Structures are given as C-alpha cells and as structure tokens.
Amino acid sequence: KNEVEQSPQNLTAQEGEFITINCSYSVGISALHWLQQHPGGGIVSLFMLSSGKKKHGRLIATINIQEKHSSLHITASHPRDSAVYICAVRFGETSGSRLTFGEGTQLTVNP
Amino acid sequence: DSGVTQTPKHLITATGQRVTLRCSPRSGDLSVYWYQQSLDQGLQFLIQYYNGEERAKGNILERFSAQQFPDLHSELNLSSLELGDSALYFCASRTGTGGYGYTFGSGTRLTVV
C-alpha cells in the first residue's frame, strides 16, 4: 500500500466544471505539496500546505491534519488545466526532507 | 524557467553505458534532490545533498552515484545502464532545512536502448 493515495486516477471534465482531487496519507507529515506536471514532463509546484487552506487564482488547496487528507480544487476548469496533478508529502523530520509522491491524477478538461 | 537547470534534456544511450546528468540549483538553494520517474513506479526519491554533503538516500541503485560540488551544482552518474533505467530524472532544489517549497528542474529524459 502506497503511503500516499490519490483519487481519482483519471478525471475527465467539461470546461467550466468544478474539479476535486483527493489525497490521503498514512502517518503524520510536516508538509504536503500539490504539483502539476504537463505533457512535456516539467513539474511545477502549486501549493505547499501544513494546515488550513490556500488559494491561488482558480486553484484552492485544503488540508485536514487530523483526518490526514488534502484536496485540490479547480474552479471554472479550462482545457489548459489538463495535466497530471501529484500530491507529495514530507513526512516527519526523521525521514529527512525528501518527498513521497502519490501516483498522480490525470486530468483532461474538454472544451 | 524555474531557476533549476538540468542538462541534457534528452539522452539516448545503449545498455551497459554510463551517463552523467547535471543539475544547477536555484540561486541560493543549498539542497539538491534527485528523483526518478518511471512509467511503472511513478516518482521516487533517489538521493539528497545539502551544501556538498550527502544528506539522505532513497531507492538508489548501487550502479548510480551522485555528488554535489562546491558551486552547489550536482551530478547524477548512472552506470552499467539497463533498459529499466529508462525514465525521467528530475532534480529539485530547496533553500534550507525549514518549511520551504521545492523547485523542480525540467528533467532529463533518459532512454536506454
């Protein structure tokens, strides 16, 4: 069982729809990251969370530390949002500062 | 441009060969991380350097080695290459040991034929 679980694995939406991607993890963490990977392969860091909620444009990320769960929301989705979204966590300091990754969610937004 | 530079972008080589991947971290970042992304295993941590010293090791094969130089650039050396080593290799950098974010390079796509 992966230490970081993402759902769904694949998601297809129509332009304008509200999208939610979920991430759960098994043990306590010091930080959780949401990453975006476009078809060209490059990875962009969207958010780093240790508590609460962050918003950037149409993207919102939330984390519930007690439930060990995070969500990434995209409002008013657009075809340019099509990408793989990856949840990554940094476990406690005894694990160093490496990231452990979920398997990613492939999002396709159709016009 | 993220500020983390990886070269080369693409590399095609034969089994049994040795290659070197290079990473220049974002200016001021002391930590460099190497990750491997293969189709069957997703993104996996290989190794971390901090200010020239190895800090943590992950699922790195003995055929692979890395180092970080005084100017903070890092190299990942892959030897006795096998078909299964074909993957995207990412470098990421981070400023310090506090709760800072990571900046990823654009990756090196290695194809072993």
Let me know the number of strands of chain A: 11
Q: Summarize the helix and strand pattern of chain A as letters.
A: EEEEEEEEEEE
The biggest beta sheet of chain B reads: 7 strands, mixed
- As a whole number of angstroms, the C-alpha radius of gyration of chain B is 13 Å
Output the structural class of chain A: mainly beta
End-to-end CA span of chain B = 30 Å
Largest interface: A-B, 23 and 26 residues
Which H/E pattern describes the elements of chain B? EEEEEEEEEEE
Overall mean pLDDT of chain A stands at 91
Please describe the structure with a list of short key phrases separated by commas or semicolons.
heterodimer; A: 111 residues; five-stranded antiparallel β-sheet; 11 strands; B: mainly beta; seven-stranded mixed β-sheet; four-stranded antiparallel β-sheet
Structure description:
The complex is a heterodimer of chains A (111) and B (113). Chain A is mainly β and 111 residues long. Helices cover 0% and strands 59% of the residues of chain A. Chain A has no helices and eleven strands. In chain A, strands 2, 4, 5, 9, 10 and 11 form a six-stranded mixed β-sheet that branches. In chain A, strands 1-3-8-7-6 form a five-stranded antiparallel β-sheet, with no helix packed on it. Chain A is globular and about 45 Å long. The N and C termini of chain A lie far apart (36 Å). The model of chain A has no long low-confidence stretch (mean pLDDT 91). Chain B is mainly beta and 113 residues long. Chain B has no helices and eleven strands. Chains A and B meet through strand 4, strand 5 and strand 10 of A and strand 4, strand 5, strand 9 and strand 10 of B.
Q: Care to give the gist of this entry?
A:
By secondary structure, chain A is an all-beta fold. Chain A is built from no helices and eleven strands.
